[in-house]
Amino acid sequence: MLKRILTTIIVILVSSNCYASSGAKKPIQMVWPFEGMFGTFDRQAAQRGAQVYLEVCSACHGLNHLYYRNLISLGFSEAEIKEIAGNKTVIDGPNDIGEMFERKAIPSDIFVPPYPNEAAARAANNGAYPVDLSLIVKAREDGANYIYSLLTGYQESPKDVVLMNGLHYNPYFEGGQLAMPAPLSAQQVEYMDGTPATVEQMARDVTIFLQWAAEPEMEHRKSMGLKTMVFLLIFTIFFFIAKKRIWKNIC
């Protein structure tokens, strides 16, 4: 038993030291509207984030676990969703004569990936494979803060750092060097609601959108949790009173 405890402690310490020595800077700690027991999605920000994804990020990164129709929960109308989906084409079929064919995407389709397969994705990105963003917030430690920090953290490399060919410096990325160039630049997107499209604003908005993409049921889950806690509290009080009344003559 003692040996197992010591082994566990050593593993934790080694893991912590490896993470600390990776060279990755600790992510900026932001305040997010979806955090905490009562957290919700800022739908206006999430809609802007969806716009950033569609106009910028979707050129390289897919959302393979999300359907266009899911956008309705962010406040997009059916007409808007049809228009968003209709800008993409998918391979469907076979038809009546056994042939595959192209058609416009519809709301029931998943977000159309930017590349037909991994080989094509690597060929277009100097061998690097752009990750799917459906669950990226859940797949990274301190997910939302990490994504925001990474998007806003590109800078000139220090003099003591030698960048490998084709890589870019970002202190929030493990090792400090990554193949993806800075994806955001000021006024790159023209927000439909008139919000100034600074790099920080776009990074915040797309992070909120990706948080929603990773856990669209979050608000319902939290609501059910609160209802369950209230239910248990009421019945705890009820049974406590019942216990007092039943046992008062005995005690």
Main beta sheet strand tally, sense and closure: 2 strands, antiparallel
Distance between the termini: 44 Å
Number of distinct beta strands: 4
Shape: globular
Strand residues, percent: under 5%
Count of DSSP H/I helices: 8
Give the class from helix and strand content and strand pairing. mainly alpha
Radius of gyration: 24 Å
Uncertain segments: 1-21
Strand and helix order? HHHEEHHHEEHH
Spatial strand sequence of the major β-sheet? 1-2
Round the mean pLDDT to the nearest integer and report it. Answer: 89
Helix content: 40-55%
Write the layout of secondary structure elements.
Layout: H1 2-20, H2 43-55, H3 78-86, E1 89-92, E2 101-104, H4 118-124, H5 136-139, H6 143-152, E3 168-169, E4 177-178, H7 199-214, H8 218-247
Antiparallel strand pairs: 1-2, 3-4
Helix pairs in contact: 2-7, 6-7
